From TrEMBL:
Pfam families assigned to the protein according to its UniProt record, in alphabetical order: HATPase_c (PF02518), HisKA (PF00512), PAS_3 (PF08447), PAS_4 (PF08448)
Coiled-coil ranges from the UniProt annotation: 629-699
InterPro entries per UniProt: HATPase_C_sf, HATPase_dom, His_kinase_dom, HisK_dim/P_dom, HisK_dim/P_sf, PAC, PAS, PAS-assoc_C
Keywords, in A-Z order: Coiled coil, Kinase, Phosphoprotein, Transferase
Position of the signal peptide: none
EC nos: 2.7.13.3
Domain PAS: 140-211, 270-341
Domain Histidine kinase: 702-928
The organism's place on the tree of life at top rank: Bacteria
PAC domain segment(s): 88-139, 216-269, 343-395, 585-638
Name of the protein: histidine kinase
Entry GO MF terms: phosphorelay sensor kinase activity
């Protein structure tokens, strides 16, 4: 029975131990000294990152103890075992499973048998946070002591129960005392100016009264105990009370303000004279009586603040004119002035005419013998030009540092002293830190004569310092003078690689365009500049003019003198001036034919040529001669007139007239056949243009794709520098902006790539189950739907012939828009509906031939909506109705949607109302014809 009882008690003890082990977060271990094995509990193993190991070699514990702490810990354990001790505790660093050292507090208990240690069982606690808090407290105490010493502030403690004062060395200096650290309060009063003793005694008594809150703040004079020197002190303190309201400790600081008081006294003597002198210099003055609250502002001061020179202004008026963004600056300046006695701040003021100006306000308090401010006076100075200049200077510095061009400065000997961010990057120099010792000339591959003249410009090869790679650049190097003294060289280098590549692409495009023009059977000419100089003409237009290539380079009037007196030169100048195209049909033109001025008829157009800035730089002339057609019409008209005149009187000649008309008709048919041939030639030219456009689209796709690689490097290295431990906060803040801008540009490029893929139209169609696509998209947005608690209702969507990836992109963008533009405080409600349509129900033209079944698929939300006037803008690439910080995104989503729907021979419709919601409907056919 006793054996079973013992067995039961042992089992119960084991269960109690297991429950205790699970309930505690301690790290429990057991070291078997005999076989040198170590056991640790589950929590310990998980903490170590080895949840599978229950037993380990004791050496594994030693390997985890910090090398600097291991000798001490082992010495303590060995000493314990040698003297037969039973309890050990210690604090040391221990390697956790995550690779970091933790501070632990370890306690062990030794079991002996026959005087020999058998095992040590212990409990380890992670005390890293406590150790770090102690370190932070010690550092904070050191910083506080340093700050007090740097500010020449002394500290003191008064113990009310014993009337003893403990003061530091600084306080003893302020009282001219160099002896004991503890003195009686009566002795302290002995060295206070006799006129200020009642004031100090009353202030101390008030601070020791629990009803006042224990605050102490006073200014008074002392007479040095040993040097008999008079000093002004500013003392602050706080009393501490027990539960009975009795003060047991009164501590504070003391600061020498003798110089400040003396400066104020001197300032008071010259105040009136200075105020008169200041008013004559265009600087305003003000004076405030602290006792009565009366304030006075000079007319000049009133003008600087309000824009109107009047004396009827008070403090409330001044505050009302302070720019809202600068009122906090003023408030902080006044808080500081209450401590130091001096006021100084710069702020913007809004004048009565709503213009913004800047002023500098300086002021000073005057105190009585008790240290109480009695008045406040100061100056108001207009610094609008200075502030504007500073703003312009900051803009200039920002432009230089962030310029896409290289900006470099050297001393008079050519040693590089400044290189902007772009220059460091292109030259292969670290963007942070000091510049290496280098000559500006060393950045170039050859000894260009950049320092030979006062100003030098030319093309150079920039050499990267680290890789020796070269970059073609255009350089402008100039000597820098300061008041006529030569102080160094300034250089601006422009990376020519984008320009050379753009020039190559432009030249290639111009070549293809020129080849297209020159091979066109239709007359085409190009006139550039206000003088309308003939720059490009094909053989067809030269044949029409009966001229040769010598007209190239001449003005329109010089090339075609027969146009004098005709309206065409004036029309060309009007198109150039206004940028509005001009078209004419069956226009008569007098041209030299076989040496004679001959009437010809043309259909022609004058189209303005514009650069990237929208400025007109030339006019393109395309024409089609229809002289034969017009003449045929004239002949026909004349024939009809003759027929009408002769129908009654010459009926017998009807047959002859009919034959003449038949001949004319045959001539017209011949002319029409020529026109048909001309149209076929124009169609062939259009096919060439389409092929050129496709090549340009492919180039845009490749260029956008190649932008991703350097952008990834920018984001990678910016992230690495951002995580550098010693990085200054200001630099880290700027790096965060770079990373954010890089991520946003990556999204823009990615969306642009998606858009370019849609432009290529290379995908093949197949049957797409839109309901499956919708389920997948809703699964992708599961987190966003749960986060916004959105209510989504949907119909079962049909299957249509489409390109699968484009359909996924369409549904994804429509659902994303509905979830993004939600109203604050309103639970999002989204409805996806489908309505079958027959071709007879649709009014959109043109419709896909042979397709009778169409579907209207709509996504409706109760979001912010928008003014329907902007319905066209939301489908433009990168067009946004809201700022990016309110509703993020690239602004290309709905443009992609419209392109996808157009690729599938459908169209988008939008309905919206501000504050109510938006419905976007895609009209799509059930079947397509071949590829998209």
């Amino acid at each position: 029975m006793s054996e079973r009882l013992n067995e039961w008690e042992g089992q119960a003890a084991l269960e109690r131990y297991e429950l205790l082990e699970k309930a505690t977060c301690d790290l429990i271990w057991d070291w078997n000294i005999q076989n040198n094995t170590l056991w640790w509990n589950d929590h310990f193993r998980k903490w170590l990152g080895n949840p599978e190991e229950t037993f380990a070699d004791a050496d594994s514990w030693k390997q985890r103890v910090h090398p600097a702490d291991l000798p001490r810990v082992m010495q303590e354990v060995d000493s314990l075992l040698e003297r037969g001790g039973s309890h050990w505790c210690g604090e040391y660093r221990f390697l956790r499973g995550d690779g970091a050292y933790a501070y632990v507090y370890d306690r062990g208990y030794v079991q002996y048998k026959d005087g020999k240690p058998l095992r040590i069982a212990g409990v380890m606690q992670d005390v890293t946070e406590r150790v770090r808090e102690e370190q932070l407290r010690n550092e904070a105490e050191k910083e506080r002591s340093f700050a007090l010493d740097a500010a020449e502030i002394g500290t003191w403690v008064l113990y009310p129960l014993t009337s003893q004062v403990k003061w530091d060395e600084r306080c003893k200096q302020l009282y001219g005392f160099s002896k004991a650290d503890f003195v009686s309060f009566d002795l302290v009063l002995k060295y206070i100016h006799k006129e200020d003793v009642p004031l100090v005694s009353a202030a101390v008594a008030a601070a020791l009264d629990a009803q006042t809150g224990g605050v102490y703040d006073i200014r008074f004079r002392t007479i040095g105990a040993e040097d008999n020197r008079l000093r002004w002190l500013h003392c602050k303190g706080q009393a501490y009370f027990d539960e009975k309201g009795i003060a047991y400790r009164f501590a504070g600081t003391a600061q020498d303000i003798t110089a400040q008081v003396e400066e104020r006294r001197q300032a008071n003597k010259t105040e009136r004279i200075a105020r008169l002198a200041v008013d004559r210099t265009g600087v305003g003055t003000f004076f405030i009586d602290m006792n009565t609250g009366e304030d006075m502002y000079s007319p000049t001061g009133a003008r600087i603040i309000t824009g109107v020179e009047t004396a009827e202004i008070n403090r409330a008026t001044l505050i009302g004119h302070v720019h809202p963004e600068d009122r906090e600056i003023r408030r902080q300046a006044y808080e500081k002035a209450l401590e130091t006695g001096y006021l100084q701040y710069e702020a913007r003021f809004i004048w009565r005419d709503e213009s913004v100006h800047a002023a500098k306000i300086t002021g000073m308090y005057t105190f009585d013998s008790s240290g109480t401010p009695v008045d406040f006076s100061g100056l108001i100075q207009d610094i609008t030009p200075e502030m504007n200049a500073r703003q312009e200077q900051r803009k200039l510095l920002s432009l230089v540092e962030n310029s896409e061009n290289i900006k470099a400065v050297s001393d008079t000997k050519g040693h590089l002293v400044y290189l902007n961010r772009t220059g460091r990057r292109l030259a292969g120099i670290a963007e942070e830190g000091a510049l290496p010792v280098i000559q500006m000339q060393d950045l170039f591959t050859a000894n260009y004569p950049v320092f030979a003249e006062e100003a030098w410009s030319g093309r150079v090869q920039l050499k990267q310092v680290s890789t020796a790679a070269t970059i073609p650049c255009h350089a402008d190097v100039r000597k820098i003078f300061d008041n006529g003294t030569f102080i160094g060289y300034g250089a601006t280098l422009r990376d020519l690689r984008p320009e050379l590549e753009a020039r190559r692409v432009l030249e290639e495009s111009e070549r293809r365009f020129k080849d297209l023009v020159m091979s066109s059977p239709a007359p085409i000419g190009m006139y550039l500049g206000e003088e309308l100089r003939v720059t490009l003409v094909n053989q067809a237009i030269l044949n029409a003019w009966e001229k040769d290539a010598s007209v190239i380079g001449k003005t329109f009037a010089e090339a075609l003198p027969e146009m004098e007196g005709q309206p065409f030169e004036a029309i060309l100048k009007q198109v150039y001036r206004t940028g509005v195209a001009y078209e004419a049909r069956e226009e008569e033109v007098l041209l030299m034919r076989n040496g004679q001025l001959t009437s010809t008829w043309y259909n022609f157009s004058y189209t303005p040529l514009k650069n990237q800035q929208g400025e007109v730089y030339g006019v393109l002339n395309t024409a089609e001669e229809i002289t034969d057609v017009v003449k045929a019409k004239l002949v026909l008209a004349e024939a009809e007139i003759r027929l009408e005149q002769q129908v009654e009187e010459r009926t017998g000649e009807l047959q002859a007239t009919t034959e003449e008309l038949q001949a004319t008709t045959e001539e017209l048919q011949s002319t029409n056949e020529e026109l048909t041939t001309t149209n076929e030639e124009l169609n062939e030219a259009n096919m060439l243009l389409q092929r050129s456009n496709k090549e340009l689209e492919q180039y845009a796709f490749v260029a956008s794709h190649d932008l991703q690689e350097p952008l990834r490097k920018i984001r990678l290295y910016a992230g690495m520098v951002y995580n550098y431990k010693e990085m200054p906060d200001k630099a880290r803040e700027m790096l965060a902006k770079i990373i954010y801008s890089g991520e946003r540009m990556s999204v823009l490029i990615k969306d642009l790539l998606e858009f370019s893929r849609l432009l290529r139209n290379e995908k093949m169609i197949g049957m797409v189950d839109l309901d499956t696509v919708l389920q997948n998209v809703l699964s992708d947005f599961e987190v966003a739907i749960l986060d916004k608690n959105a209510d989504i209702q949907w119909d079962r969507l049909p299957a249509i012939e489409a390109e699968p990836l484009q359909m996924n992109q369409l549904v994804f963008n429509l659902i994303s828009n509905a979830l993004k533009f939600t109203r604050p405080g309103v639970l999002p409600q989204i409805a996806i509906r489908v309505q079958p349509l027959q071709v007879e129900e649709l009014e959109q033209e043109p419709l896909l031939k042979g397709v009778q079944q169409w579907y209207a698929i709509s996504v409706a939300d109760n979001g912010i909506g928008f003014d329907i006037r902007y319905s066209d803008q939301i489908f433009e690439v990168f067009k946004r109705l809201h700022t990016r910080d309110v509703y993020p995104g690239s602004g290309i989503g709905l443009a992609l949607c419209r392109k996808i729907v157009q690729n599938h021979n459908g169209w988008l419709q939008v309905q919206s109302q501000e504050g109510v919601g938006t419905i976007i409907t895609a009209i799509l056919p059930e079947r397509q014809q071949g590829t998209l």
